[in-house]
Amino acid sequence: MTDWIGSIAGLMANTTITEFLLVSTVFAIVFLVLRSERVKIPPGTKKLPGPMPYPIIGNLLSLSKNPHLSLTRMSKTYGDVFQIQIGTKPVLVLSGLETLKQALIRQGDEFAGRPDLFTFRLVGDGKSLTFSSDSGEVWRARRRLAHNALKTFATSPSPTSSSSCLVEENIITEAEYLVRKFKQLIDEKGEFDPYRYVVVSVANVICGMCFGKRYNHDDEELLNVVNLTDEFGAAAASGNPADFIPILQYLPSSSMKAFKEINRKFLDFIQKLVKEHYKTFDKNHIRDITDSLIQHSQEKRVDENSNVQLSNQKIVNIVNDLFGAGFDTITTALSWSLMYLVAHPNIQEKIQDELDQVIGRERRPRLSDRAQLPYTEAFILEMFRHSSFVPFTIPHSSTTDTVLNGYFIPKGICVLINQWQVNHDPNLWKDPFKFCPERFLNTDGTTLNKIEMEKVMIFGLGKRRCVGEVIGRMEVFLFLTTMLQQMQFFKQDGEKLDMSPQYGLTMKHKRCHVTAKIRFPLLATH
Ligand code: HEM
Predict the structure, then answer these.
(1) Crossing angle for the helix pair 229-236 and 254-280, nearest 10 degrees?
(2) Would the keyword Transmembrane helix turn up in this protein's UniProt record (predicted)?
């Protein structure tokens, strides 16, 4: 955001007074015209509350560097449903768990759209399932395809192994490689940056599902793509001024240049793999998600639940979304987990005691152990809640004129959904800023409290809820338990942990080097 403010300041410095007055007059006229076209509120409904916008920039300055915090503060004044203006565009902000359930579940169809934003048009050549403004039948048919592909190639029972499903085997293998890599780094250097290696292991899991392929930790091609997520997340985050003030799209901006470059690199990487799949495709031997999408497009199957006919590109491009969404979120979750573990050694010890008692040292953790590891599960929930590393869902839009909590909502308004606010709402959580896994346990301390668990907002809700949630939760559990069964992590002597999140689509902490101790020698078998 500072990049944009810098551009505006630079522009003003190079402008004469006459030019400045002329531009101001034009903007003032545009502002007055826009004001006169204000939305008419139907009788019996209320006008959305919200702060007074300034001409041209609206409430942009009030968003600050951390929009999740400023919009949470505003919700205390204006309530769960209020409007701000970014540039000249109105934006609806929703907070409060009950309000989010009302909008996204009970009125789900009315809030399932995506706004047509400048940055979103740059993702996946404008054809992304996640970011494009397709809603209705096209989006629904693509979402069903994504769901089915994940079911077939991830969560279906494994025909050949003892694992409960295909992806379990895949994750356990990658987690084991990761632990070996950490051990090697400890022997060689005594410390390491976990994020750098976790990202490759997590990317390998989704690469296995999508392309039947894995990469080693030093593969330049993969590293070039997976290391772009910070810049991607900064530009695609909710409230990017370039999405709301059209003139900013034409000003020189290093962050927007980087964003375009990232999308191009990402698309090239995926397209290369898709092309290889087309060359070796055999309809009698479907190897992975890409093959199954190619098969679907070649057979020109009409989606069985609708009459919509999707283009080949819109079918095969679904793999871009699955790959893109499938590694950054989980890597960020694991990286935050390691930060909390080194910041709270007593919590790390408690998890390890639980793992020792339930699993022991003779075998590796499995998904079937989850029910017997309530403290570990409570830790994961608390990591999701406390970090709230996806502070807003991806922006939604209203698909029709509607009413929410008595307020009139016009069709097509961009909607920001503040997950961070729900996860830190003092009406829902005792001491919301304290990191305390115990809050998710019943008083007996051995079972999880379902009501508390369901209050955590990190995967969204309703029609647009994350399609990879099941896999995401499995991955975080298996990577974490495999690491913690074998290794104990510490912060380095003298290293200060900086856990302040950097705002973005997914919020990251500053990269941090940790050290680790091997808890017991590696077993030859799982
Ligand atoms: C810890 C891991 C994850 C978190 C926290 C997470 C979170 C989210 C959130 C907040 C959304 C936006 C929901 C909305 O707009 O209302 C989303 C959407 C999505 N996620 Fe995830 N996600 C995770 C893992 C995954 C994985 C592993 C995949 C794929 C394999 C995936 C695929 C998607 C897709 C395709 C969408 C777009 C859905 C749509 O627009 O209809 N996610 N995710």
Answers:
(1) 120
(2) yes
Residue 216 and residue 196: Cα distance in Å, rounded? 12
What ipTM, to 2 d.p.? 0.99
Residue 403 near residue 45, CB atoms below 8 Å: yes
Ligand 1 center from residue 329 Cα (angstroms): 8
Ligand 1: distance of its center to the CA of 466 in Å?
3
Which of 264, 184, 183, 178 has the alpha carbon at shortest distance from 214? 178
Q: How high is the pLDDT of residue 23?
A: 64
Ligand 1 mean position, distance from CA 399 (Å): 21
Angle between helices 166-189 and 194-211 (to 10 degrees): 150
- Output b/e per residue, 443-454; b: 16+ Cβ within 10 A: eeeeebbeebee
* 463 close to ligand 1 (CB < 6 Angstrom): no
Our answer on whether the CB atom of 130 is closer than 6 Å to any ligand 1 atom is: yes
Alpha-carbon distance 212 to 206, whole Å?
9
Distance, CA of 244 to CA of 250 (rounded, Å): 13
Q: Please give the number of the atom of ligand 1 that sits closest to the Cα of 461.
A: 16
- Which residue stretches of the chain have pLDDT < 50? 2, 4-13, 525-526
3-state secondary structure 463-478: HHCCCCHHHHHHHHHH
Query: Which helix (DSSP H) or strand (DSSP E) does residue 404 occupy?
Result: strand 402-404
Dihedral angle at the C-alpha atoms of 233, 238, 240, 245, nearest 10 degrees?
150
Nearest to 518 by CA among 273, 184, 211, 281: 184
